[in-house]
Design brief:
Layout (H helix, E strand, L loop, with lengths): L1 E4 L1 H9 L7 E5 H4 L8 E2 L9 E2 L3 E4 L6 E6 L14 E5 L11 E4 L4 E3 L2 E3 L10 E2 L10 E3 L7 H9 L4 E5 L3 E6 L4 E2 L10 E2 L2 H11 L3 E7 L5 H13 L3 E5 L10 H8 L2 E7 L8 E5 L2 E6 L3 H19 L8 E6 L11 E10 L2 E6 L17 E5 L11 E6 L11 H4 L3
Parallel strand pairs: 1-19, 6-7, 14-17, 14-18, 15-16, 18-21, 22-24
Antiparallel strand pairs: 2-13, 3-12, 4-11, 5-7, 5-8, 6-10, 9-10, 19-20, 20-21, 22-26, 23-24, 23-25, 25-26
Length: about 425
């Protein structure tokens, strides 16, 4: 097992133990927001035949007047081809007869008995939706790795696709450690603290299309009870996240619990602040990731260690977008380990700007009430941050909009 490793080394170690999850076929509405695991190809042209773009009359080459030989209603197919001097009444989206060169708008014609006249010049191809106007047979409709959007679902429905194959959601269990930690539903006694980290991480996991199967607090369970529950959670999940107790203190439980489980320890502690007390282990194809119990450190650890795994399990690029942004304010601390600051980033008319959020101590949660959508990456030994300074920023998923949380998943919290 490696100790006190660089962040990139820790990330590589974890990702080397990730297995892409299998696919499952779901109805389109249930698959919205999920990651498609196959290329989907157009099986035919869309539209499959020429259609009228408006209500009117299909006309052939040559001048009028035109004899109306047929009037089509919605859903009806033409029974004859057009010859010179003939026309067929058509409806918006309806099929066109062979021999048509244009559709004349109904309101632009004059009907006299069985004939129509049209005084303006006919423009070939006008008011016609040609076959394959949207897609040609063989076109790529949805690429493997795409997040299924409402628009994609609509196109697939137009092709008669009722279901789509998507990657299975990673199953995630969350276990908060420490005899002083109680459920967020309980009233804490003196010396106890409600577990807010569990719910926070569960919501973040759901944004990455993870399925939260359990959010629990170990509380005052003894070592045997915790070990048994640890194994049960590991058995039914792809990732088990432990929160708190990840240092080497007398009462810290994460490291002994993982050793007791006979999981393979991958590394322990990483060279960053906050979140240095983080570690990982593997148990077959399953992963255990231990995060700090301090709220800010827990959140940073999630974004740097857990979120990349959730994406990799769904065959996505694991790392978030990194860019340069100009700081809107200052951060006076200097030096020390590589540091990550909770921040809010936005693209303005002059480029990307980033604001350092209040409450940067590991134990603080002030930044969570703001639009915390980025991490600022300050190198080891960094000087104080000045206003107007260009900084390296990691954009978090929320910068591109929140994913919908499953109602069924939210009831587990």
């Amino acid at each position: 097992m490696l100790k006190k490793v660089e962040l990139e080394k820790a990330q590589d170690i974890i990702l080397n133990h990730v297995t892409v999850l299998p696919g499952e076929s779901l109805p389109l509405l249930q698959a919205l927001g999920r990651i498609v695991c196959e290329d989907i190809i157009a099986e035919h042209d869309l539209p499959p035949y020429a259609q009228a773009a408006m209500d009117g009359y299909a006309v052939p080459e040559g001048g009028g007047p035109y004899q109306v030989i047929e009037r089509l209603l919605p859903g009806e197919m033409p029974t004859a081809s057009l010859s010179s001097g003939q026309t067929v009444g058509v409806v918006t989206g309806g099929p066109l007869p062979d021999g048509v060169v244009a559709v004349v708008p109904q309101e632009a014609t004059e009907l006299r008995g069985e004939y129509i006249t049209f005084n303006k010049a006919i423009v070939p191809g006008s008011n016609i939706k040609p076959s394959g106007e949207n897609f040609r047979k063989g076109d790529l409709l949805v690429r493997q790795g795409a997040c299924l959007s409402p628009g994609m679902a609509g196109v697939l429905a137009a092709y008669g696709r009722n279901e789509v194959t998507v990657y299975r959601k990673p199953r995630v269990a969350i276990l908060s450690l420490g005899p002083d930690i109680v459920s967020c539903r309980e009233t804490p006694m003196p010396g106890q603290t409600r577990d807010s980290n569990g719910l926070h991480l569960a919501a973040l996991v759901m944004q990455e299309q993870g399925q939260v199967i359990s959010v629990e607090v170990a509380g005052t369970d003894n070592a045997n009870q915790m070990g048994k529950r640890f194994q049960e959670l590991l058995h039914c999940s792809d990732i088990l996240i432990t929160i708190g107790g990840a240092a080497y203190g007398v009462s810290d439980q994460a490291f002994p619990l993982i050793k007791q489980s006979r999981a393979e320890l991958l590394f322990w502690e990483i060279k960053i602040k906050p979140g240095s007390h983080s570690g990982a282990a593997s148990f077959g194809e399953k992963l255990v990731i231990s995060l700090s119990g301090n709220p800010a450190a827990c959140a940073v650890g999630y974004h740097l260690l857990v979120a990349p795994v959730l994406r990799a399990m769904q065959n996505l690029k694991p790392y978030q977008t990194r860019l340069s942004a100009v700081s809107d304010n200052v951060f006076l601390k200097k030096g020390g380990s590589r540091r990550f600051l909770l921040a809010s980033v936005a693209c303005e008319h002059l480029g990307w700007r980033v604001k350092i959020l209040p409450g940067q101590k590991s134990s603080m949660t002030k930044a969570f009430l703001r639009e915390c959508n980025a991490l600022i990456d300050l190198p080891e030994g960094h000087p104080p941050v000045k206003k107007g300074e260009e900084l390296s920023v990691i954009i978090l998923k929320s910068a591109y909009g929140e994913e919908t949380i499953d109602e069924k998943d939210s009831q587990l919290i």
